């Protein structure tokens, strides 16, 4: 199984992905403008690695996840998964690939059907994939529950009988049931209690080591991303502003947005409280499309030219790219 | 009780009854807020943080809830003995509250101006024009740009951060002595959170108020608190100033929480995690409520309710095992 997957080191490559949503107004629902939810996003995830996608709410993180899962059709761009461009696949062509990409959602209370026992929920994927024999399904179910640290006899119970952390374990078991190679984790721990978060982070890490999984880890919590991810991409208003290996991003953040995001993390260290650099509140209207850098208006080092031309990525180090003029000129 | 104490809570108990269950949500907590300080109540969901705050303001829904005992001393009176009319004079006027969800705690069909104005006109006899000026001043104080126009806006026209600023403006309307903020930044982005924390720090200083800040985020605590009370399953497990809690934690729960925080400096190492889950308030374990999850637990922890142990300089922790063991 491992050897087949390792043909190419890059498991998922996303190239200039775009998704615009129309804003409709008036009686005839005319298109009044476009929300550029994802506006030319590119990244690569290597086999067995974790890519962290961070940004504020509304920056398009979850839309990227939905595009990769083909729950939404991209307007432009490529999604190359294990060598084939699934972005163009029809529903039917996509079906055999569906099992390879799975997702764990943020809210373990909303993402499990309350009327299905957790056994049924976890097995559903297997049934759809055509594993008909109930004994082999049962065997797999037991193995999955053990893998996520739950007792096999919990299969007959309902979601409301479990705590948030246990439910998130169930959701992880469900995602793993079809043996995926890429798991998208969309804020998987932000709805959990502090003492439970570490348990789930450890579980995700153990599973990655054991099964060679790749993760796309979406989060707004830079402490978690800094701990868990190999590479971090910082998103702002539908675009990636900076992308770098995790240590580099923390040691040498280059984009002004990354810097303000990093300084806004409340660190559990009482001495550090005066160091925050505050961002100006974002007052721009999402309807107004403008030329130039998306960060204009909030950027502390803005210049007139930032409002004129689209800025392309500048390379500042190995695998470290930044969407800002000034950095490249330093 | 020290001289500069603003409000002190003694052995407050809040119980909830439903379907024969008897949930001891807050089970005898004592703490005080002094003048011009920010204290944090930290704990996980269901530990009784919010119920304690609602208890102080007399907002516990009864039934199913009831205040089963204790005292809340504020300005030489026990708030628990006041009638509803007297309590109304305290609420908003002397003690104000900021809730977690700004969208659900603002009324969607009234403008911002109406809602802040209401808070003012309930407690003060003022002309409409004076109320309006007051509102504009408040919005300016909490950092909202073009406040005169914002007064005519409805809550849905504002961003999450702005709504929380409006909530803070409402809380400030009558210049209270104490603001209780219940997870005011949990629903917000980190960058907005940083702004709101800054705002709390500055209003606390300029208006010389006290802030009781409720949160589960230890990062926020380190940023804002002067003193910290750590809660677990309805009791206070540890209390001290911020440096004591973060650098010299004495209770296994506090130690565990701090060790389990992910950060980039812990990369490559396995995170410590507290085993098990938070107990259901209706079925709390006997003895020390933390004992099933505690790695230091000895048989006595199962039977005996732990006493507060004094580490000096107002640093207390409810764990006799570690205290007698020399604080390990």
Structure overview:
The complex is a heterodimer of chains A (330) and B (328). Chain A is α/β, with parallel strands linked by helices. Chain A has a single domain, classed as 3-Layer(aba) Sandwich (Rossmann fold), CATH 3.40.50.300. Chain A has an 8-stranded mixed sheet, sandwiched between helices. In chain A, helix 4 packs parallel to helix 6 and helix 6 runs parallel beside helix 7. Chain A starts with a helix and ends with a helix. By secondary structure, chain B is α/β, with parallel strands linked by helices. Chain B has a single domain, classed as P-loop containing nucleotide triphosphate hydrolases (Rossmann fold, 3-Layer(aba) Sandwich). Helices cover 34% and strands 23% of the residues of chain B. Chain B contains 13 helices and 12 strands. An 8-stranded mixed sheet of chain B has the order 6-7-8-3-9-10-12-11, sandwiched between helices. In chain B, strands 2-1-4-5 form a 4-stranded antiparallel sheet, with helices on one face. In chain B, helix 4 packs across helix 5, helix 4 runs parallel beside helix 7 and helix 5 packs across helix 7. Chain B starts with a strand and ends with a helix. The model of chain B has no long low-confidence stretch (mean pLDDT 88). Classes of the chains: A alpha/beta (330), B alpha/beta (328). The interface between A and B is large, with 44 and 47 residues.
Number of discrete domains of chain B: 1
Number of helices of chain A: 11
Number of domains of chain A: 1
Query: Regarding CATH, which class of chain A?
Result: Alpha Beta
What structural class is derived from the secondary structure elements of chain A?
Answer: alpha/beta
CATH architecture of chain B: 3-Layer(aba) Sandwich
Short description:
Chain A has helices spanning 2-5, 61-68, 91-98, 118-128, 134-147, 164-176, 194-211, 222-228, 246-251, 256-263, 325-329, and strands at 10-25, 30-46, 50-54, 76-81, 84-85, 101-104, 182-186, 214-219, 231-236, 239-245, 314-317, 320-322. Chain A is of the alpha/beta class and 330 residues long. The model of chain A is unreliable at 1-7 (pLDDT under 50).
